Amino acid sequence: MTERYSTLSHLECPKCGARLDATVVQGTCDCGSPLLARYDLDAARGMSPAGRAPTLWRYHEVLPVSAESAVVSLGEGMTPLLPLPVHGKRIGVPDLWMKDEGLVPTGSFKARGAAVGVSRAAELGVRGIAMPTNGNAGAAWALYAARAGLRSLIAMPVDAPVITRAECVAAGAELYLVDGLISHAGALIRKALASRPDYQDVSTLKEPYRIEGKKTMGYEIVEQSGRRAPDVLLYPTGGGVGLIGIHKALDEMRELGWLTPETRLVAVQAEGCRPIVDAWEAGAAESVAPAAPTTIAFGINVPKPLGDFLILRALAETEGTAVAVTDEELLAAQRELAADEGAFVCPEGAACFAALIRLRESGWLRGDERVVVLNTGSGVKYPDTVRVDVPTISADGALPDPA
Ligand SMILES: Cc1ncc(COP(=O)(O)O)c(C=O)c1O
Ligand SMILES: [Zn+2]
């Protein structure tokens, strides 16, 4: 057994190599890059999650919170890794699995980043958190902030999923709707922070610990597969935090001596907002924002991710790829999956299932490979994505005979 609850040692800049103190509140590096948490992995080597409670805190040695008493939890983590044999067979990927993040508190994987980010912020003395969001992250952070006794200031596009507004308001957040994109919401939050010194800017990758919460998806997938990593993992990529986190987790697990052969990581985007796919295809190190980004898969409508170079690095280092699909393709995949397997996924997750079809057709994906798709949220959070066109029958009427 390891002695320390957390083996966090310092923060590191993946761009310029700077080393920063992890015992005080930090944002980004002076060079503008996000910061990554580093651990004393030698001390964490004895980590043995089996037998611990089924939450992401089972990996506490490689999480930044220093003591169990500082953990702010709603029971997040250890979501199911579900086999999808019927759908897999239909699309020529028989060894297909889904990590279903629809089952975490708040209905999306954003709960992971919020649980770890809020816990660490509260532990370091932060009194309030402020962020722009495409909806789900704001909802999760507002709810976890409420549990931690922190205030929250949230700005989201008016087009963000309506339920996420209700989650923020119910949590007592100070919420603003913005007639624009998440990037516009971000600019408003930055300006507002000037007059709120006791709030921390917890925008995507502007604090180092959200990524630590999301990386636990990688740990869980490997643990749930008997310490076998999948051949290919598909991730719906907006800010890319989950993809960067899973890449980091795979690297850490390799260092910890948990067997993990290389997993090819795939960033999936929508045709209406494909900065990472464009950069990948052009062989560029960074992305360029599209002029008028739009997609029904709202969580991946991110025109210029701060961590774009880290996403592209993760794809290159794992020999992965980037794929874009149309809204029509992802909506069709969403319904097909629900009918085949009973799994009602969010449109972002559905984009990955649509991408699978393309990858099989192109031959990039072989039919004998083990594939895990990250479904990042519940379809229930998006009640308007499925067009419902069914008859209404009068109270004293009768249902038609079977066709
Ligand atoms: C359901 C869903 N999937 C995917 C994403 C994209 O997440 P990431 O920032 O990790 O790329 C989001 C972000 O809002 C989301 O809400
Ligand atoms: Zn730097």
From TrEMBL:
- Can you tell which superkingdom this protein's organism belongs to? Bacteria
Q: Which biological processes are named by the entry's GO terms? A: isoleucine biosynthetic process; L-serine catabolic process; L-threonine catabolic process
Q: CDD domains, per this entry?
A: Thr-synth_1
Q: Which UniProt keywords apply?
A: Lyase, Pyridoxal phosphate
Q: Which Pfam families does this UniProt record tie to the protein? A: PALP (PF00291)
Q: Which Gene3D superfamilies match?
A: 3.40.50.1100
Domain Tryptophan synthase beta chain-like PALP, by residue range, is 72-377
Q: Which SUPFAM superfamilies match?
A: Tryptophan synthase beta subunit-like PLP-dependent enzymes
Which co-factor is required? pyridoxal 5'-phosphate
InterPro entries linked: Ser/Thr_Dehydratase, Ser/Thr_deHydtase_PyrdxlP-BS, TrpB-like_PALP, TrpB-like_PALP_sf
Q: Name one GO molecular function term.
A: L-serine ammonia-lyase activity
PANTHER family assigned: L-THREONINE DEHYDRATASE CATABOLIC TDCB (PTHR48078:SF6), THREONINE DEHYDRATASE, MITOCHONDRIAL-RELATED (PTHR48078)
**Can you say what this protein is called?**
Threonine synthase
Q: What is the lineage of its organism?
A: Bacteria, Bacillati, Actinomycetota, Actinomycetes, Pseudonocardiales
